[in-house]
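Kindly go through the entry underneath: sequence plus fold tokens. Please state briefly how this chain folds according to its tokens.
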Amino acid sequence: MRDLLHSQRGSVAFATVIALVPLIGVVALGAEAGSWYVTRQHAQNAADSAAYSGALRLSCTMAGAACETQSVDYRGKEFAAQNGFCNYSPNDATAYPGRNCPTSLPTRTSRVVQIDIGNYNAGTFTTPVAGTGNAVRARVSQQQPAYLAAVLGLTTVNIPAQAIAMVQLPSKVCALALGPDPNGGGALKLAGNLSNNGTGCPLMSDYSVQLGSSPTFTPPDAGWALFGTTGCKPGGTCANPGVTHNYFMPPALDPLQGLNNPTSSINTRTGTTTSASTKVTCPAINPITGLPYPNGSKCWNVAPNTSSGAYTGSFNWGNQDYVTFTGSGTYFFYNASVNITGATVTGTGVNIVLLGSSSLTINGGNVNLSALSSNPTFPALNGVLIDDQTTANVNIGGNGVIKLAGAMYFPKANVSFGGTTQPSNTTCSEVIAKTLTMTGGGYLSTQGCAPTTIVYTQVVALVQ
């Protein structure tokens, strides 16, 4: 018996058993924590895709483009559901395409998906008035019971994930086709033998792009780019347009969409108290050329009608016509036909507004018009040379020197822009139209454009 009491055999095994008890607990607790990590990764994937998808939808609203009917909230939750996370508080049973959520969760387990629109700046997300902002935040979480972790006082565990996607504005656009193109083929068409020149800037279609042949850009490698949102054709030409290109981007921002309000004081002008331009005697010397006017010349003065009235009727100015927009201000045309064919037309500080059934054609000549940069009566027109609210086709081109300095806005019209149109270098020459066909050697530039008229491309990026 004395030998048995003093025997040490088996003592190591006993100590090992004692040591294994907490060790097994730690391993089991680690395994439970590992499952939390896996759930956290799945939640983060859901949050990332939800925020990014929601921001893509937000970019369409910001651009003023024709957007799909589904909301930012729907698109965010749709992509969260495709990644296995649906809102179970309250239960969201929406049949999202590709939904991959379990029909029920384990006891005491819940999931929450929340989508917010807000402003993201310097690392901070704030939620302003509902529906506004430049970013989308997706917050995804799963709450579940704690098992072995209960020994540490944890009865439930909340596993959260958050992502923020921001709509960024990286590039200034000098030509934007808003679309759609009723004839198909592309809202932005770059015709054969096109040779754009200017200071270098992107051309953008909020729908598709069509190339008649490989365009050229002068000077090359100066910031030219070609973008679209729904593709480009024909494929062979689109593959190498010679500049940076992306045909599946978010739509570009239309900065002048506020001008489309039919009830604004700009668009309700229908009066005709100013019914015609005034023919005047030509002075002895042409102030533009410094030479006498040719025989048969006719000179016309067109005065601003900022306060009342609108020009109406037909204005056909040809080779022997010299037309002067006499002062800074707004020039309204209502149910008017403006045809400039070879005429000399000048004006500084001009905002031209076309309403009703008006139409505009510029076919060659010597046209030198610049926009009024600050309009106290109609500030929405600051920097806008032409605001055309009609649906008539517009043609700007032909031989001569056509200097149109300012933003030209044709949201409802099909526009052909080309010829030898060439404002002075580094002068704003920006075109926004329903559809835009570029031909010849049109000049484009965002240099000197009023800040409120500048078109920006949009890029969606995860920022958190």
